[in-house]
Each structure stands twice: as structure tokens, then as C-alpha cells.
């Protein structure tokens, strides 16, 4: 049989082996949960079973309990600590806090007559048999079931000798006292082997499935998307049972045993399951997703309004008949078109935006004309897209794109120029912060030019040294060769149009064309010096203009910007100031500029479409963590992002 | 009962920031919308500008849109011919869709006042199919009821709506979905799913806690708990 145990057991010191369960990968069926990244089986070195470990296990539960209190509206919670806690909402836990899966029976939370095997999976009843109907020795797992699983499932093998085992398999809350069968205490549910009854405190026992006993594998699951339990027997589904399971507060897998010598072995995913739980979950996932897709688009939600008038409940909303709450198909199309259009405009997809706007207008006018001779919709639905694709918008996209591209090319003068002309408020905003950033970048570009010249000078000097041993070659050619090679492997970040400023055009110096001095190292070095002086002069102006600005961000950027002067090659990836000099910092600045322009136009810094995605993902994750299991089946990355 | 927990705007925005989604992810969502809704030239431009390969060929977008337009202007016969040109299996394997198209054709006859033709068409083409299934029969009856009223406004809404542009759009939408399915392309626009998920999720989360609500079109948030 193929092993599904996953990574080999880690090597651990002998003295802890007795109680170290094998590490195993997260059961595959849990991959269908959108919150799978938070669901954790224990690591290879679980802290058991000393007193210290028990303490740590119970603090975990306490934290989970506090967490449930923090998030649960209802307060029907049996934990005394939380009941006495102040009514101030507990701070929310971090969203990236892992949720531990129950993978073994607790050494502590059990009836004293039950013993737990060293791997934490077997329960054996050694105490005297219980005589009363509901009396039993029960146990639960160390961790509660995270509702973010969507569906949780485990199987139990009946090891005892009885054909009809006096065993109840199910779930229990933290309040159980381990002297009852699951299904007899409040907030517990069970399936009983002796007569096949389902036990729940609300309904007592009722006929559910067949009796079970030795050799049988009983599977037991909770579907948190419906708050129903289900059982399987030897790999076959019996069906859903019980209501409101796990709706309020955490539940643990729990087993209760009544007769001496009876025992069970649980499979929390360590071994392959008898039942095809993966398929079960997948189907339930699809059911849930289709239900979500049948939601109608609600006007208030889309406008970000609270729909509650008083106490928040769906009933009070549906009674509110003042406004039509659902969007018509036409209206939802408008919402989508606007989201798409603003997205295209935001990122400067000018041609697409243009084509989209034209097609949209063209298409939706005809049917409304047609409609005028029939009853029903008049031409009252006018499209918004027409105005947003007007010429001015296209020009705007164009100049915004130009500014961004100038920054990317290192042409800061042109970027600042266009900004001054078209978006003066952008430069003024935030006390000229962006202008300052752009000017700092200009200083960086100027200085990078000088380092480039210096590199070239060095190369020429070396070449000349070599040439001096073969003095026939004229030096012009050397320079030209150099120029050519520089062009070929030119760094993309070095702006092309700057090239002429590096060496004066030969035409300016015709009278010297025959003299060797023109290309002599001295001349180049003079050019280098003048470029360096120009750069430093610019830097000094910058200092004079902004010295009095005491903002931390300004001062820091100052320091970093001038820091590059100390380095011979700031673009060298190993250089400590490379993040100031590199092309990446141009990209970041270009991004800032784009945001700033959009902001100045009263548009959001990120497209509404992106905010919509991020907000929805955040809300769904929070919903899953708040105990709404159905949220686990709203897998956004699978539904929306995977091709 | 303790007050509902609440999340402040700053915390919420920090979480938004941590959501894993890239510009190219969003570009693909936009492309999905352009393709399924049939914005052919926009889809073409977008695949250039955003450097995205389109999920289907652009010609199929065009023929889908031709079919949709034919239905929207009431030329059902043209639409049927075009669907069969594209892929005859679409209607062969989908009797319910074929019935809907025939029903739409009947509606168009009635709209144009071509009553004898309407009756002939109903008797020849639709009545035999009404015998096949009770659903078809009830739809046929509903459509024939249009003849009982001298003008549409006098008919009960459930019947008059057959003459509305929405009915044409609905038929066009069903055909569009069937074609997309035959191209193994998703038929539901993913962005619509996203909006629905938002409505579903926010409604449930509101019962659990206070959190900043999003104004979808503006992309802005209100303060937590502010109505």
C-alpha cells in the first residue's frame, strides 16, 4: 500500500520518542479550504506530554477561546473565564496566526479510566464498565476544530470485541466532563454503536444508522458551511445529521466508551481515509460556491453603506421595501464598465480604454432605441462611460504616461517640466515633497553621468598606456572605438539623449582636430571635472532650497542621495547605496508620480477594481476566521486568479 | 452581551495591503471581462498594451457578438444560422436552448403583428415540442397568451414582459453562455462573481463585526461603524 505519511519522522532523542507522534502532512481534503495556509498539523516536535506541554496546550485553547469570544456575537459560552471577562471586545488576533488542527487525543482532557496510546491515536478503556445509560468515559482532542476548515473529518476504527460497541463517536465543546457519552452533554453530538442511534441533547436519541462494532471504520465530519454533521461507515456515507453543530463556539472530536476493554483508534489524516472525503468536500465546495454566485448584487453593499436600521439582521433588511435593493442587470453592467474603465485609465492603457469606450457606447445605444416602441425600459439608462472616454481623458492619460516614461528614462527635467505645465498641484502637494524627490533623482542622474565618464576615462588611460607601446594608431580611433563599445553594452538605465553632453561635439573644436590634445586624457578629465562641478552645483542648490525642511523623510532622502557621491560605482549591485541609484528606484519614483497625479485629480491611489479585490479577500478571510465555515469555500485565488 | 468586535480602518487597510494579488492577475480579470462580454477591439488592444495572450481567438468573440446583436434586433433566424455556422452541435445538444430560440422567434412574429404566421409557426414547430415537456408547454402557453390582448400594456406583467428588451437580452445571454461553454471558456464573468462574493461576504460579516465598508465605485472606505 502506498504510504501517505509524508516526510520521514525526524530524529529525536530517545527519551521523548514514547510520546512523539509521527509528523504528517495536512490531509489533502483540507486543500479545498481557502484558508488552508493557516491550517496546521503539528510540527515535527510537538510539546508533549510533560506538565509544561499540557500548560502550553491549554493556553492555546484559552487563546482560541478568547478569540471565539472576540469574534462571536453570541455569548452562550461555557468557559467561566470568558464569561467573567469584561464586555470590552478583545483585540483581534493577527490574521496570519496559524490554526492548529486536532490530530491526537489529549492526555489531559479525558476520563481517568481511559488511556491514550503513545502516538495519541488510540483510546483504551481500562476502568469498570458503566452501568447507567448515559454514563461513559470520554475523551477529546488537544485542539478544537478550526471552523476555517470548512469541513472537518476524522475516522475511528473500532478495536474492541463487541459486534455492537457501546461507543459514541462525535463532537463535544470544552464544557464536557468526560463522564458522559458525546450526545448527552450540552453542546455535544454522537453516533452510538450499540443501536445506531444519533445522540444530541436537543433530541435525545433517534434512529440514524446501523449499529457498529469491532472492525468497523466510522467516519465523522462537521460541515461548517451548513453546520451539520455527517457520518460514514466503512467508507459509505450515511447522511447529514443534527443542526447548528459548531455554530457557537469551538468543538473537539470526542469519543465516549462504556465497557471495559473496548478501544478505538482514530485517524485524523495520518492514514488514508476509507471514505472519499476529498470528493465530498469538493462537491460541497461547489454547492457553496454556486450559492454564493446566486447572491444578488445589493445596492447598499456596493455603496458601502450599513444596511442596518436598528438591530442587524437579514429579516429587517428584506422588510425595508423603500428602495429596490437589487441591481438590475443593466445597472450591474454599468458598475462593471466603470470599474474596468477606471482600471484601464489608471494604468494608462490608453488604446484599450479608447476602444472599450467606443464599443460600449456603440453597442448599448441600439437596443434602447429599439426599446422605445415597446413597453418597459425607456432610454433612461444612459451610459457613463461615454463621458469618461472623452478626448480630454485620453490627453490626460497621454501626458501622465509621458511623465512616467520620462522618469523611467532618467529625464527628470522633462518630467518636471510636464508636471509644471499640466499638473502643477502635484509638485506643490505635501509641501513640495514630490518635487524634492524628483530633484534628488536628478542629482543622482547627474552624478551617475560623472561616474560613467570616470569609468570611461579610466578605460582610455589603460588603452593609451597599451597604445604607447604601439604608437601608430591615432587616438581618435581609440575614442571612437570606445564610444561604439559603450553604446553597445550600454546600461539601459543610462539615458541615450544625454550622450552628447559627455563629450563636446568634434565640430566645436575643428581647429584642434589635428591636434592630439582634443582626445587627450587631460581634455576628458576636464570634461569630467566640469560635469562633476555641475552635479555638485545642482546638489548645492538643492541643499539651499530644502535645507530648512526638517521633515524626517526629507532629511533622510537628503542623506541617502548625497551618500552616493562617496562611491565609485553606485550602480554596482554590491554597492551599499545601489537602492538609491538603481533603475528600481526610478521605477518606484515613477510609480509615486503616477499615484500623485491620480490623487491630485481626486482619484484613488489604486484602481477601484484592485481595492475591490483586496477588500473582498480581506472580508472573506475575516469571515472564515469568525466561524462562518462557508467562507472557507470561497477560494478567491482559485476562482478568480487561476487561468 | 459584549459589543460586536470592530476593526479600525488603519488595521483593515494594513490587511488589504497584505492580500496577494498582482497587476497581471487583475489584468487577466479585465481580459476575462472583455472577452466574455464581447468587447473584441478592446480585448485586442488590451492584449497588446498589457502584453497578455487572449484566452480565445478574437474571431470567435466577433461571431458571438454578431449572434447577440441579431437577437437583440429581433432577427432570430439570422442568429440560429450563425450559431449553426459556428458549431452545429450547440443547438443539437441543447434542446432547451433551441426551444428558447424558437419561442423568441414566435415572440418576434407577434411583436410585428404577423399573427397568421405566428400561429402557423407555433402549430408547426412549437406545439410538437410542447408535448415533449411540461416546461416547454407552459412557456408556449404563456407566449400564446400574448395574442389574447390587443396591446401589450393591457397584458399582465408576467406575459407582457415577453415583449420587453429584457427578454431579448435574456435569450441572447443564454445563447452567449452556451457558445462560451462550447469553447470551454468560463461563461460567468469573473468580475461579476467578485461583486457577488462581496455582497455575500459583507452581509454575513456585518452580523459578526464592524468593519470599514467599501464604496465599490469610488474605491474608498467609510469609518468603521459609521452609517
TrEMBL record, chain A:
Residues 42-114, 356-392, 490-513 are annotated as: Disordered. Residues 64-75 have a biased composition (Polar residues). InterPro entries: B30.2/SPRY (IPR001870), B30.2/SPRY_sf (IPR043136), ConA-like_dom_sf (IPR013320), CRA_dom (IPR013144), CTLH/CRA (IPR024964), CTLH_C (IPR006595), LisH (IPR006594), SPRY_dom (IPR003877). Residues 83-273 form the B30.2/SPRY domain. Residues 360-369 have a biased composition (Basic and acidic residues). PROSITE patterns: B302_SPRY, CTLH, LISH. Residues 396-454 form the CTLH domain. It comes from the Eukaryota. This is SPRY-domain-containing protein. It comes from Cyclocybe aegerita (Black poplar mushroom).
TrEMBL record, chain B:
Transmembrane segments: none annotated. Coiled coil: none annotated. Residues 60-117 form the CTLH domain. InterPro entries: CRA_dom (IPR013144), CTLH/CRA (IPR024964), CTLH_C (IPR006595), LisH (IPR006594), Ubq-SigPath_Reg (IPR050618). Pfam families: CTLH (PF10607), LisH (PF08513). PANTHER family: RAN BINDING PROTEIN 9-RELATED. This is CTLH domain-containing protein.
Amino acid at each position: 500500500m502506498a504510504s501517505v505519511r509524508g516526510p520521514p519522522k525526524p530524529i529525536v532523542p530517545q527519551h521523548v520518542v514514547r510520546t512523539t507522534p509521527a509528523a504528517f502532512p495536512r490531509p489533502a481534503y483540507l486543500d479545498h479550504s481557502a484558508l488552508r495556509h493557516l491550517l496546521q498539523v503539528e510540527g515535527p516536535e510537538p510539546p508533549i506530554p510533560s506538565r509544561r506541554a499540557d500548560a502550553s496546550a491549554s493556553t492555546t485553547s484559552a487563546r482560541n477561546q478568547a478569540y471565539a469570544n472576540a469574534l462571536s456575537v453570541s455569548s452562550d459560552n461555557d468557559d467561566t473565564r470568558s464569561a467573567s471577562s469584561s464586555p470590552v471586545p478583545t483585540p483581534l488576533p493577527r490574521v496570519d496566526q496559524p490554526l492548529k488542527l486536532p490530530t491526537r487525543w489529549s492526555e489531559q482532557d479525558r476520563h481517568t479510566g481511559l488511556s491514550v496510546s503513545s502516538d495519541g491515536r488510540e483510546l483504551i478503556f481500562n476502568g469498570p464498565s458503566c452501568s447507567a445509560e448515559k454514563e461513559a468515559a470520554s475523551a477529546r482532542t488537544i485542539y478544537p476544530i478550526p471552523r476555517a476548515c470548512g469541513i472537518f473529518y476524522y475516522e475511528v476504527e473500532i478495536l474492541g470485541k463487541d459486534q455492537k460497541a457501546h461507543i459514541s463517536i462525535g463532537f463535544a465543546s470544552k464544557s464536557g466532563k468526560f463522564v458522559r457519552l458525546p450526545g448527552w452533554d450540552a453542546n455535544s453530538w454522537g453516533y452510538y454503536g450499540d443501536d445506531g442511534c444519533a445522540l444530541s441533547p436537543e433530541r435525545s436519541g433517534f434512529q440514524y444508522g446501523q449499529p457498529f462494532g469491532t472492525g468497523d471504520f466510522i467516519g465523522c465530519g462537521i460541515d461548517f458551511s451548513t453546520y451539520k454533521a455527517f457520518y460514514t461507515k466503512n467508507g459509505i456515507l450515511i447522511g447529514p445529521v443534527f443542526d447548528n453543530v459548531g455554530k457557537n463556539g469551538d468543538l473537539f472530536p470526542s469519543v465516549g466508551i462504556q465497557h471495559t476493554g473496548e478501544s478505538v483508534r482514530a485517524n485524523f489524516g495520518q492514514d488514508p481515509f476509507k471514505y472519499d472525503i476529498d470528493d465530498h468536500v469538493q462537491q460541497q465546495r461547489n454547492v457553496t460556491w454556486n450559492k454564493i454566485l446566486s447572491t444578488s448584487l445589493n445596492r447598499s453593499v456596493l455603496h458601502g453603506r450599513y444596511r442596518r436600521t436598528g438591530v442587524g439582521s437579514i429579516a429587517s433588511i428584506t422588510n425595508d421595501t423603500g428602495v429596490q435593493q437589487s441591481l438590475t442587470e443593466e445597472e450591474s453592467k454599468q458598475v462593471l464598465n466603470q470599474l474596468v474603465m477606471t482600471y484601464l485609465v489608471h494604468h494608462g492603457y490608453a488604446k484599450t480604454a479608447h476602444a472599450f469606450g467606443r464599443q460600449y457606447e456603440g453597442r448599448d445605444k441600439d437596443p434602447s432605441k429599439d426599446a422605445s416602441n415597446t413597453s418597459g425600459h425607456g432610454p433612461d439608462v444612459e451610459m457613463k462611460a461615454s463621458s469618461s472616454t472623452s478626448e480630454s481623458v485620453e490627453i490626460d492619460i497621454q501626458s501622465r504616461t509621458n511623465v512616467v516614461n520620462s522618469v523611467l528614462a532618467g529625464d527628470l527635467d522633462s518630467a518636471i517640466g510636464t508636471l509644471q505645465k499640466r499638473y502643477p498641484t502635484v509638485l506643490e502637494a505635501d509641501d513640495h515633497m514630490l518635487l524634492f524627490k524628483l530633484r534628488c533623482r536628478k542629482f543622482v542622474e547627474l552624478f551617475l553621468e560623472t561616474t560613467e565618464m570616470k569609468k570611461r576615462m579610466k578605460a582610455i588611460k589603460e588603452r593609451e598606456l597599451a597604445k604607447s607601446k604601439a604608437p601608430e594608431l591615432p587616438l581618435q580611433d581609440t575614442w571612437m572605438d570606445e564610444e561604439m563599445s559603450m553604446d553597445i553594452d550600454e546600461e539601459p538605465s543610462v539615458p541615450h539623449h544625454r550622450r552628447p553632453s559627455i563629450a563636446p561635439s568634434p565640430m566645436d573644436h575643428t581647429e584642434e582636430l589635428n591636434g592630439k590634445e582634443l582626445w587627450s586624457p587631460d581634455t576628458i578629465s576636464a570634461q569630467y571635472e566640469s560635469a562633476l562641478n555641475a552635479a555638485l552645483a545642482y546638489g548645492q542648490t538643492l541643499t539651499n532650497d530644502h535645507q530648512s525642511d526638517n521633515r524626517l523623510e526629507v532629511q533622510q532622502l537628503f542623506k541617502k542621495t548625497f551618500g552616493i557621491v562617496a562611491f565609485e560605482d553606485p550602480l554596482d549591485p554590491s554597492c551599499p547605496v545601489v537602492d538609491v541609484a538603481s533603475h528600481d528606484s526610478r521605477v518606484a519614483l515613477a510609480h509615486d508620480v503616477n499615484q500623485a497625479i491620480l490623487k491630485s485629480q481626486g482619484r484613488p491611489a489604486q484602481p477601484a477594481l484592485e481595492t475591490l479585490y483586496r477588500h473582498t479577500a480581506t472580508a472573506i478571510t475575516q469571515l472564515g476566521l469568525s466561524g462562518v465555515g462557508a467562507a472557507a469555500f470561497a477560494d478567491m485565488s482559485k476562482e478568480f486568479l487561476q487561468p | 452581551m459584549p459589543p460586536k468586535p470592530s476593526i479600525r480602518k488603519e488595521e483593515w487597510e494594513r490587511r488589504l495591503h497584505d492580500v496577494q494579488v498582482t497587476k497581471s492577475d487583475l489584468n487577466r480579470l479585465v481580459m476575462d471581462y472583455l472577452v466574455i462580454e464581447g468587447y473584441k477591439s478592446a480585448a485586442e488592444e488590451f492584449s497588446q498594451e498589457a502584453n497578455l495572450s487572449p484566452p480565445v481567438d478574437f474571431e470567435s468573440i466577433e461571431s458571438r457578438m454578431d449572434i447577440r446583436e441579431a437577437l437583440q434586433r429581433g432577427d432570430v433566424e439570422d442568429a440560429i444560422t450563425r450559431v449553426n455556422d459556428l458549431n452545429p452541435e450547440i443547438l443539437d445538444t441543447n434542446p432547451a436552448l433551441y426551444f428558447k430560440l424558437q419561442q423568441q422567434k414566435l415572440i418576434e412574429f407577434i411583436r410585428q403583428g404577423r399573427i397568421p404566421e405566428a400561429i402557423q409557426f407555433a402549430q408547426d414547430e412549437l406545439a410538437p415540442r410542447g408535448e415533449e415537456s411540461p416546461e416547454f408547454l407552459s412557456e408556449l402557453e404563456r407566449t400564446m397568451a400574448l395574442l389574447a390582448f390587443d396591446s401589450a400594456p393591457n397584458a399582465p406583467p408576467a406575459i407582457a414582459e415577453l415583449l420587453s428588451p429584457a427578454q431579448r437580452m435574456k435569450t441572447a445571454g443564454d445563447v452567449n453562455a452556451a457558445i462560451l461553454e462550447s469553447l470551454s471558456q468560463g461563461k460567468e464573468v469573473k468580475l461579476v462573481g467578485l461583486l457577488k462574493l462581496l455582497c455575500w461576504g459583507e452581509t454575513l460579516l456585518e452580523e459578526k463585526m464592524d468593519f470599514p465598508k467599501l464604496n465599490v465605485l469610488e474605491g474608498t472606505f467609510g469609518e468603521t461603524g459609521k452609517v
